[in-house]
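cron nightly-structures :: item 1 of 1
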Amino acid sequence: MKFRRWLLVLLLSLLCLPSVVPAAQAKSPGISIFLDGQKLDSDISPYILPKVNVTMVPTRVISEGLGASVNWDQKSKTVTVSKDGLQLVMTSGRTTALVNGSSVSLDASVQIKNSRVMVPIRFISENLGLTVKWNQAAQQISLTSTQVTPPVDPGIPVPDNEKIRGVWISTVFNLDWPSTKNNILKQQNEYTALLDTLQDTGINAVFVQVRPAGDALYPSEIVPWSKVLTGTQGVDPGYDPLAFMVEETHRRGMEFHAWFNPFRANSETSTAGLAPNHVALTHPEWMIKVNNQLMINPGIPEARQHIIDTIMEVVNGYEIDGIHLDDYFYPSNATINDAATYKTYNDGSYTDIGDWRRGNINTFVQTLGDSINRVKPSVEFGISPFGVWRNKSADPTGSDTSAGVTAYDSMYADLRTWIRNGWIDYIAPQIYWSMNFTAADYDKLVDWWVNEVKGTDVDLLIGHAAYKVGDLKQEKSWHTASEIIAQLQYNEQFNEIDGSIFFRAKNLISNPLGLLDQLKLYYQS
């Protein structure tokens, strides 16, 4: 992942470090700070301000560690930080600061704690030209000067304990969570119990569906509350589920990735039961009826921006580790009634509607990636497409498969362009077939994807079909949990593979054919 590729690249959002434990309960061993790999001394431990999630450090770290001049005026309770022609002025109690005389907003200003002056490290580091990276598990801040180039040895594989071992948690139809509606305590207890089971197995990241269908599992100014929480869309559940989940996930040293279904507006075509501010009611002209569902038309620029705006609400409002999209772009094996949209929005650049559709998705992916990087470059942006890009029969550079559906031709997902242009941080293809499935062999597809990301800055995660284990309707390979273990063992030979994600949570914790037990043994070995 990005944080492993740039071991010293600083998260601009580090200063808004993930909220781990409410301040009154925090009993952490302390946050350590490193500058270009060297540990900085601090006579008082840095701490995280609750609610705003800003990391505060003593001025000694700024003066002795970062080499800046620091002046404290006790009368006005003002700190002035100066270095290389830059002057930062912050006054206790004020929500603005002066940067070389210009006023800028602050999430948190100067504080006095135990008779020591504490300042926000993110604000100061950014203005001093440093980058910041937060390691949740190690409770560590890494500051990196722009002149330092981190050493990279592609011949050394990433240690297994640094690779992603993730699980998708589906909320649509209440599949994985929550199973109970209108009960805050039960929903919270269920989530923490789920995390504990997953963590005990060796899972270190969750990909939680926070936008099942044009709605939200968090208070949004744009879209309504999801009905999975209360049974009725638009009804406030009485707490912020996303904030709770992020906090509990980070409390365990696990990563939290917010999973969005970008273009699915509703899981049925009827608008009955939708909240008044649902996009299907506020913008019916954006809707396409397809496969007995309503989808947002990707060909309309304003509709694409609406989705980006909803995603950026989460990027700006929560200390998540990543934004994750699934394969819901254009639907496969369906008639898409967008000829009128093609006529209206095609500026003459396209002579083929398929290429135009791919262009719409490309624009969406690029714009979203740029938006995330501009605000919080620390946040990973990844996509999990259908596992086959194109068959070799359709494109000689495609995989040696004969899949009936492909990402490029059926869903108009031009993922090769995303990878080669670096618009995403990682790709997580859903390789949901066994190693003995002739039409789409797992191992052949893994080989293809490894080659596709080789030499790029895009990481590769593999999506595994845990849901098939123990399903007697599936091919014989899935009649044993060893299929998944064999896939993981196959992946070990590739430095390009940065981890795995399993679909989905309930299909793990139900322990089909001992899968959970085998995974635990595998990850502990």
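cron nightly-structures :: done
Residues 58 and 117 are 6 Å apart (CA to CA).
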